[in-house]
Write a structure and sequence with these properties.
mainly alpha, Arc Repressor Mutant, subunit A, 11 helices, globular
Length: 221
């Protein structure tokens, strides 16, 4: 078990180093040598976990959306909110997630398939919105697949703008995403449902705490 734990930690260290180098240098300019220097591991350790720079970049990209599932809610529209709120919270608090998002938005990363996070997130939101529709929470005209893709695109644009003006107006990403929900949701959910939703900027932190508490209760002594 100790050996497995070390392997997991080493993989995480490599991913964090690669993410930071990709974020600073850009995917094209980043080199394996620089990533090795930042990670402080041997070339053999890196290639034990990743076959190439491309494979390493895909590993980084997967870090931004592999924890998007949120605790189930009776109101599926709240789950829809919670996914985006949690993602915003993790972008602000987890450097690896933040760097992974930056890599997914790197237009100069030619040859790297950056579609995975966007597709997986859209599919997750589509499933949640379909459940919300089945429960009668959505307006009649809503097409879940379309709304899911529009939200993912709007979130990406909001996140990119927030990063570009970071330190200017002092508004956090969580606050911007809260505003985004307040503008989008009236065109998706019934007014009675909208009134019951928690759209506050600290919703992401609350969801993260719920997930941490659930994991603690399921840990084997």
């Amino acid at each position: 078990m100790a050996k497995q734990d070390r392997a997991i930690r080493t993989r995480r260290i490599i991913l964090e180093a690669a993410a930071s180098v990709f974020e600073v240098r850009g995917y094209q300019a980043a080199t394996i040598s620089e990533i090795l220097t930042v990670a402080g591991v041997t070339k053999g350790a890196l290639y034990f976990h990743f076959d190439s720079k491309d494979d390493l970049a895909l590993g980084v990209l997967q870090e931004q959306d592999h924890q998007l599932e949120v605790p189930p809610q009776t109101c599926k529209s709240q789950e829809f909110v919670d996914v985006g709120a949690l993602h915003a919270y993790r972008i602000e608090t987890d450097p690896l997630v933040r760097s992974a998002v930056a890599l997914s938005m790197d237009a100069h990363a030619r040859g790297l398939d950056r579609s995975g996070p966007f597709i997986r997130w859209s599919q997750l939101l589509r499933t949640i919105l379909l459940q919300a529709k089945d429960q009668g929470e959505l307006l009649p005209h809503v097409v879940p697949a379309e709304s899911a893709e529009i939200f993912v695109g709007a979130f990406g644009g909001t996140q990119a703008m927030s990063r570009a003006v970071e330190g200017g107006d002092q508004m956090t990403l969580a606050e911007r995403i809260s505003q985004l929900y307040r503008h989008i949701l009236p065109s998706l959910v019934l007014p009675s449902v909208l009134m019951s939703l928690d759209l506050s900027p600290n919703r992401g932190a609350t969801v993260a705490q719920l997930i941490d508490a659930a994991e603690e209760t399921t840990e084997v002594p």
